[in-house]
C-alpha cells in the first residue's frame, strides 16, 4: 500500500507540474487608457485689462489647502471632519470590505485542507443491499448478528454496528485558464476603486465644510448689514417724525419711512434661519447633533479672505490628483479582468482531490496500520450545455467593460470642465466683487447727500428711501460676492482634487479639541 501511495503522489505531482507549465490566462490584459492634458489651465475667457487681486499660479498645491484662508476656526473644523464625518467612515468601511473580498478571491489560488472525525452507530436494513451481498452474514456476525446464510444470503437479522473514522481531506482547483487569477486581479482593482472612493469622500467632506463655513460667515455679514440698515431706517423714521411734528413734512413721509423700517426688519429672520441651517449643516458633516456647534460658530467673524496667489498645480497632475478619475480607471481595470473570468468558464476545470485517514469498526483498531485508507486523483468538469448562460455572461462582461471605458472617458472630460469652470468663476467673481465695492462706496456717499438735502428741505423723502434701498441691496450683494469668491476657491481646489493626500486620520472617532 505504501508503494501504491507513493506512486499516486508521484503521478499527482507530475500532473501538477504539467498543468502549471501549461496554464494560461484568458481574456484581454488591461492597458491604461491614454488621454492628453492641455498645456495650460488658463484657457478661459479673455483676460481682463486689470488682473484680479488673487490669481492662480502654476505651482504645487498645498496638501492642506484650507490653511491658505488663515482662519483657525476653519482649520479646526477641517481637522475634525477627517476623523468624524460619517460618509468618510462608511467609505473606509467599504474599503475594508473590498480588502476582505480580495482575501476571499486570493484564497481560491491555494489548496484547501480539512480534518474530520466521526462515529456512527448503524443498523442496516434486512431488506436492503446487504440482503444480496454474499457473505453479509459473516460480516454481521463479527458485530454479533444472528441468523443463517444460504448461498451468501442472510436469513437472520443484521445486527447494528459501530463505525469509527478520521482523516484529512484536501482539494485544489488548478487554475489552468487563469480564471482565478483574473478574479484576483478584478478584486484587487475593485479594492483600489474602493480606496479611491474613500479619498473622494474625504475630499468632498473637506470641501463641503469649507464651503458651508464660508457661506456661514457670509450670512453673518449679511445679518450685520441688515442690522446696520435697520438703524439707518430707524434714524430716517425719527427724522421724518420730527419734521412732521414741526409741520415741515407730511404723514406720507412718515408712512414711507415706517414701511422702509419694516421691510428692512423683515430681511433678518430669513438670514437667521439660513445661519442656523448652515451651523446644522456643519454639525452634520462632523457627525454631531443639531446645534452642537452653535456655541463655537454663532459669534460672527469675517469671511475668510483669499490669498494673493493661488497654487493650482499642473495640468499633467490632474489624473493623479482626482480620486474620481483613479476610481474610474480602477473600475475599468476590474471590468477588463472580469472578461477573463467569463472566458475561462468555457474551458474544462481541473481539480485535484485527496483524502487519508483510518476507518475501523472498533475504536481499538482505529490506529492500526491496516485501518488506513486513502484516495487521490484528479477531477475534470467540462461544460457541455449551459443554455447559453456562459455566452451571455461573457457578452455581459464585455458590455460592462465598454461602459466602464466610457465612464472613465466622461470622468476625465468632466474633470477638465470642472477645473475650467471653477477657474472662470473664481476670476470673474473677483471682478464683480471689486465693482460692488465701488458701488457700495458711491451709495454711501449718495445716502449721506440725500439725508443732508432732505434735512435742509431741498430734497424729498423718496430720494432718501431710494438711496437707502440701493445701499442695502449693494451691501448685501457685496457680502454675497465676497463669500462667493472664497467659496469659488474651495470649488477650485475640489475640482483640482486637492486635499485627499492629507495625513489626517479617517478612522479616529474622537474629536480634536
From TrEMBL:
Superkingdom: Bacteria
Gene Ontology molecular-function annotations: efflux transmembrane transporter activity
GO CC terms: plasma membrane
Compartment annotation: Cell membrane
Gene3D superfamilies hit by this protein: Outer membrane efflux proteins (OEP) (2.20.200.10)
Membrane-protein topology: Lipid-anchor
Keywords: Lipoprotein, Membrane, Palmitate, Signal, Transmembrane, Transmembrane beta strand
Keyword Metal-binding part of the UniProt annotation: no
Pfam families referenced in this protein's UniProt entry, alphabetically: OEP
Coiled coil residues, start to end: none
Signal peptide: 1-22
Primary localization: membrane
Cited PANTHER family: OUTER MEMBRANE CATION EFFLUX PROTEIN (PTHR30203), OUTER MEMBRANE PROTEIN-RELATED (PTHR30203:SF25)
Similarity remark: Belongs to the outer membrane factor (OMF) (TC 1.B.17) family.
Protein name, entry field: Secretion protein
Amino acid at each position: 500500500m505504501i508503494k501504491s501511495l507513493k506512486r499516486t503522489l508521484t503521478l499527482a505531482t507530475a500532473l501538477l507540474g504539467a498543468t502549471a507549465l501549461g496554464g494560461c490566462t484568458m481574456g484581454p490584459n488591461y492597458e491604461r487608457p491614454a488621454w492628453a492634458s492641455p498645456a495650460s489651465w488658463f484657457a478661459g475667457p479673455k483676460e481682463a485689462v486689470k488682473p484680479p487681486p488673487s490669481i492662480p499660479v502654476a505651482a504645487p498645491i498645498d496638501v492642506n489647502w484650507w490653511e491658505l484662508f488663515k482662519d483657525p476656526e476653519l482649520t479646526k473644523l477641517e481637522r475634525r471632519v477627517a476623523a468624524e464625518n460619517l460618509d468618510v467612515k462608511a467609505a473606509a468601511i467599504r474599503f475594508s470590505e473590498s480588502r476582505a473580498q480580495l482575501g476571499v478571491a486570493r484564497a481560491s489560488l491555494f489548496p484547501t485542507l480539512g480534518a474530520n472525525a466521526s462515529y456512527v452507530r448503524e443498523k442496516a436494513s434486512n431488506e436492503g443491499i446487504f440482503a444480496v451481498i454474499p457473505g453479509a452474514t459473516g460480516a454481521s456476525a463479527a458485530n454479533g448478528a444472528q441468523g443463517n446464510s444460504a448461498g451468501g444470503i442472510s436469513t437472520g437479522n443484521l445486527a447494528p454496528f459501530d463505525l469509527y473514522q478520521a482523516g484529512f481531506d484536501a482539494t485544489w482547483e488548478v487554475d489552468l485558464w487563469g480564471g482565478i487569477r483574473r478574479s484576483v486581479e478584478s478584486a484587487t482593482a475593485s479594492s483600489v476603486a474602493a480606496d479611491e472612493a474613500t479619498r473622494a469622500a474625504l475630499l468632498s467632506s473637506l470641501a463641503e465644510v469649507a464651503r458651508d463655513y464660508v457661506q456661514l460667515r457670509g450670512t453673518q455679514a449679511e445679518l450685520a448689514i441688515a442690522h446696520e440698515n435697520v438703524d439707518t431706517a430707524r434714524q430716517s423714521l425719527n427724522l421724518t417724525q420730527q419734521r412732521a411734528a414741526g409741520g415741515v413734512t407730511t404723514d406720507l413721509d412718515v408712512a414711507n419711512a415706517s414701511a422702509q423700517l419694516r421691510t428692512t426688519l423683515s430681511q433678518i429672520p430669513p438670514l437667521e434661519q439660513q445661519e442656523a441651517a448652515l451651523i446644522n449643516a456643519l454639525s452634520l458633516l462632523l457627525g454631531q447633533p443639531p446645534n452642537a456647534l452653535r456655541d463655537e460658530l454663532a459669534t460672527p467673524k469675517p469671511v475668510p479672505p483669499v490669498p494673493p496667489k493661488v497654487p493650482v498645480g499642473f495640468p499633467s497632475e490632474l489624473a493623479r490628483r482626482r480620486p474620481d478619475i483613479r476610481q474610474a480607471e480602477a473600475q475599468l481595470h476590474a471590468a477588463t479582468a472580469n472578461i477573463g473570468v467569463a472566458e475561462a468558464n468555457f474551458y474544462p476545470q481541473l481539480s485535484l482531490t485527496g483524502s487519508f485517514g483510518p476507518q475501523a469498526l472498533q475504536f481499538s483498531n482505529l490506529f492500526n496500520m491496516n485501518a488506513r485508507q486513502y484516495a487521490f486523483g484528479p477531477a475534470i468538469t467540462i461544460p457541455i450545455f449551459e443554455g447559453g448562460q456562459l455566452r451571455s455572461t461573457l457578452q455581459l462582461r464585455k458590455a460592462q467593460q465598454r461602459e466602464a471605458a466610457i465612464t472613465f472617458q466622461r470622468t476625465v472630460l468632466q474633470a477638465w470642465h470642472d477645473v475650467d469652470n471653477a477657474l472662470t468663476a473664481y476670476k470673474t467673481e473677483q471682478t464683480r466683487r471689486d465693482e460692488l465695492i465701488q458701488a457700495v462706496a458711491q451709495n454711501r456717499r449718495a445716502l449721506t447727500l440725500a439725508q443732508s438735502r432732505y434735512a435742509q428741505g431741498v430734497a424729498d423723502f423718496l430720494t432718501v428711501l431710494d438711496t437707502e434701498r440701493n445701499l442695502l441691496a449693494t451691501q448685501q450683494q457685496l457680502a454675497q460676492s465676497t463669500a462667493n469668491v472664497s467659496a469659488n476657491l474651495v470649488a477650485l481646489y475640489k475640482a483640482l482634487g486637492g486635499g485627499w493626500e492629507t495625513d489626517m486620520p479617517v478612522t479616529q472617532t474622537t474629536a480634536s479639541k
